[in-house]
Description:
Layout: H1 3-13, H2 16-23, H3 27-36, H4 41-51, H5 55-58, H6 70-73, H7 90-96
Pfam family, one: YdaS_toxin
Organism: Pseudomonas haemolytica
GO molecular function, one term: DNA binding
Amino acid sequence: MSIDAMTSAAKAAGSQTALAKALGCTPQNVQWMCSTGSVPAKHVLKIEAVTGISRHQLRPDLYPDASPTLDANVRQTSPPGQTADGAVNPSSTQQAHL
């Protein structure tokens, strides 16, 4: 829960009033979230979608870490005897053209 994250979210939305309209709540509710940094769980995903401020920044207690991408999880390894350069051996393609 960060005051900075909510302030950034309100700026990204254009204003606290604009963010309130997007969330379907009162401007006073958004002002309270900005002043305390406390974001109700029901608003976190909508704020992220509207402003681009990550759920982790808004509620690190609910969303502890940003999820790694698939590329970060998959190691680039090749089976024994195969190079990582490509699936086709260049010498095979040369023989086919002869």
